[in-house]
Amino acid sequence: MNILDLSRIDGARALVTGASRGIGKAVALALADAGADLAVAARTTPALDDTVRGIEERGHKAVAVAGDLAEPGTGAAVVARAAAALGGLDIVVHNAGILPLADDGTPVLVPFQDSRQRDWDSVISVNLNATAEVCRAAHAELAASDRASLVVMSSVAGILGAPLLEAYAASKAAQISLVRSLAVGWARQGIRVNALCPGWTPTDMTTFASGTAPLSDWLMSHVAMGRWGDLREVAAAALFLASPASSYITGHALVVDGGLVVPDGGLAGIPKPPSPFVTG
Fold first, then answer.
1. Cβ of 221: how many Cβ atoms within 10 Å?
2. Which residues does the annotation mark as catalytic?
3. Can you tell me the distance from the alpha carbon of 13 to that of 148, in angstroms, rounded to the nearest whole number?
4. Whole-number average pLDDT of the chain
């Protein structure tokens, strides 16, 4: 087999959650490019129209599954419907996640001591509790596969300190811990479990930063490569973890961040612009 063939997943049956846009959509299309049929999930099926169309244009089956992961039981239902539609699952990429949101849909970014418990609860409900539910429900399907890979979309926020994002960061750190435990517990059943930890990547979730030049410039000054990531770069990493190219990798948290987690962004000697969080 040519080494490049290890990145192919022809005939694989994959589920991607949070697939209507951003990283989830990019991952779904990357898996289709590599040969998979897909079930894609989001809160509503109309939101998945573009993703479904993109998968079908690549010559693969696409099934839209609706469900609000904030509601208990939805994660298991999404997995069950995806498995039924595809005849089983070989790959699960759990990407769905949220920040605390105000009534107008903008992220709530406040010092922890000023934050609200209900915002903490909503983030933990979706980012951690739904992750556990999806993983638990997917186990039987993956255990029946001879090419099983479970990829949980975590974040560098789960590795670094993330002031103003404490609930999000805590949920992402917990995802990494869960991945490591499941990787050990499920390894002898042939199920690989890994986390993917993107750095700053332009999505709807990060518009608050990417769309504000002073904040974006300050954030990028702490990234060794000095730029935002690209959706395709994260999707390529997800495909790597889902494919036979990573067949001897499990329990890993793969960081795709341009060098952000290197201490001080690897740029300790380069002056940084003033922090936009400091006033007065």
1. 15
2. 168
3. 10
4. 94
